[in-house]
Amino acid sequence: MMDEIIKSLSMNLECIDYKLKESQYVFTVASIEKGVVCPYCNNPSSKVHSLYQREIQDLPIQDRQVILLINTRKMFCTNMECSHKTFAEKFDFVDSHGKKTKRLVSKILTTSTKLSSVSASVLLKSNSVKVCKSSICDLLKKNAIHCG
Ligand SMILES: [Zn+2]
Fold first, then answer.
1. Distance between Cα 96 and ligand 1 center (Å)
2. Global pTM?
């Protein structure tokens, strides 16, 4: 079941580990693909520079907050003509520097467009989504929706 949740984000992800903390499900996930395509020159590379972990909030499950720990690779670009020596692995389901999955962001937006950001924050919290009033406003502004 856990693997299905992860596969619903991307078929190229696998669930390495998961823990149930008091009010959180914590999934450790990683890409199963060997190579990563360089975003600057579109050449695939499988030469790993280093690894780091991103912490991303996803849609809650059974009233528990869901945290994805994504093992992310920093790669060497092996194309000599490329303008960049290294690049970071990207995932379709989250923005490059995002802290929330796109599907969580759209849930927050759907909730917030109908309510004030204060009520939305309270409602989302009761649905196990951790988001503060100001980040709701930021999200609304980014999507050109008035923040009330
Ligand atoms: Zn490159």
1. 17
2. 0.84
